[in-house]
Design a protein that fits this description.
mainly beta; Thrombin, subunit H; 8-stranded antiparallel beta sheet
Length: 279
C-alpha cells in the first residue's frame, strides 16, 4: 500500500477547518467512540452496533512470517469467546490492550500464525494478566495496556520473535510511516475475524490533529494516532495488536497498541487511536 503523503501547512489547515466542521456535526449527532470490548466470535448473528471499530481496513494480506512479533489471542469468559491481537515481549510475556485483558478469565495465545485457525500453530494457555493500574473505560479510554504471562516459555524461530520497545525520549514519531497488523474484520459488515493476517501502512498524525477529530474529549498525550485517510485503519478484532515503525536497521519497533476508533464505522477516513508504548 502506498504511504500517505506529507502535508503542506496550507493543506493541513484546510483539513483542520474541515475537521472542525465534521466534529461539530458528530457532536450534534451524538456519535461517541465505539465501546471498548473485543470482537465477539459469532457467525450466527450480526455484530452488535456498540463494539469498537478495530480491524484492518484498506490493507493487504501479509506474507507468512512477515510479522513474527504478532500474536492472536482467543479470550474466554464463562461461555463467551472473544478475539484480540498482541505482541511478543519475551519468551514468557505478551503485551495487548487492557480492554482485551479485562474481558477474559482465560486466554489462548497463538504464535507464529498466518492462518489463525490452523492446527499447527504454537499456543500457550494462561489466566495470568497484569492490567495497567490506571486503566479506565468510563467513556474516556486511558492507559489501555496490559501484559499476559505464561509459565512455559516459547522458543523463538523465524516466525516467532519478540519485538523491541522505543528508546527513551525517541520522540512523537509524527509523520513516520507505520504499520498496523491483525486478523480483524476486513469489511464493516463481516461477522468474524479474517482467516489470514493482514496489515495496513499509514502515517502518524499529530496528537493535536487527532484530538481535534475526537472533539478534544477522548485522545490523550499517551495515545498515538494514524491518519485514517483513504479509509485505511483498524477495527473489530485488531484490538491490542501492534503498531510498528521500521527503523534504519530495517527492524520493527513497537510504538502503539490498537485501542479505539469512531462509532461512524471502520471506513470513514477517521484516525485510528492506539495506546502509545513507552508512555
Amino acid at each position: 500500500a502506498a504511504p500517505d503523503p506529507a502535508l503542506s501547512v496550507s493543506t493541513m489547515w484546510r483539513i483542520l477547518v474541515l475537521s472542525a466542521a465534521l466534529s461539530a456535526v458528530a457532536v450534534l449527532a451524538k456519535s461517541p467512540l465505539h465501546s471498548q470490548v473485543p470482537l465477539p466470535l459469532s457467525a450466527a448473528r450480526p455484530l452488535p452496533t456498540n463494539i469498537p471499530a478495530l480491524r484492518i481496513v484498506g490493507g493487504n494480506e501479509a506474507t507468512p512470517g512477515q510479522f513474527p512479533h504478532q500474536v492472536g489471542i482467543w479470550i474466554t469468559r464463562k461461555k463467551a469467546q472473544y478475539f484480540c491481537g498482541g505482541s511478543i515481549l519475551n519468551a514468557n510475556t505478551v503485551i495487548t490492550a487492557a480492554h482485551c485483558a479485562v474481558a477474559g478469565d482465560s486466554f489462548e495465545i497463538v504464535f507464529g500464525a498466518h492462518e489463525i485457525r490452523k492446527d499447527t500453530t504454537v499456543t500457550r494457555k494462561t489466566h495470568k494478566k497484569l492490567v495497567h493500574e490506571n486503566y479506565q473505560d468510563d467513556g474516556n479510554i486511558s492507559n489501555d495496556i496490559a501484559l499476559l504471562y505464561f509459565d512455559s516459555p516459547i522458543l523463538f524461530t523465524d516466525t516467532i520473535q519478540p519485538i523491541r520497545l522505543p528508546r527513551k525520549n525517541q520522540g512523537s514519531f509524527w509523520n513516520s510511516e507505520v504499520t498496523a497488523s491483525g486478523w480483524g474484520l476486513l469489511h464493516t459488515n463481516d461477522e468474524t475475524v479474517a482467516s489470514v493476517l493482514h496489515f495496513v501502512k499509514s502515517r502518524v498524525v499529530t496528537n493535536f490533529y487527532c484530538k481535534l477529530r475526537y472533539f478534544f474529549n477522548y485522545v490523550r498525550d499517551t495515545n498515538i494516532c494514524i491518519s485514517g485517510w483513504w479509509a485505511k485503519g483498524t477495527c473489530e478484532g485488531d484490538s491490542g495488536g501492534p503498531l510498528v515503525v521500521y527503523e534504519k536497521d530495517g527492524k520493527p519497533t513497537l510504538v502503539g497498541l490498537t485501542s479505539f476508533g469512531i462509532s461512524f464505522g471502520c471506513s470513514v477516513s477517521w484516525p485510528s487511536v492506539f495506546t502509545r508504548v513507552g508512555s
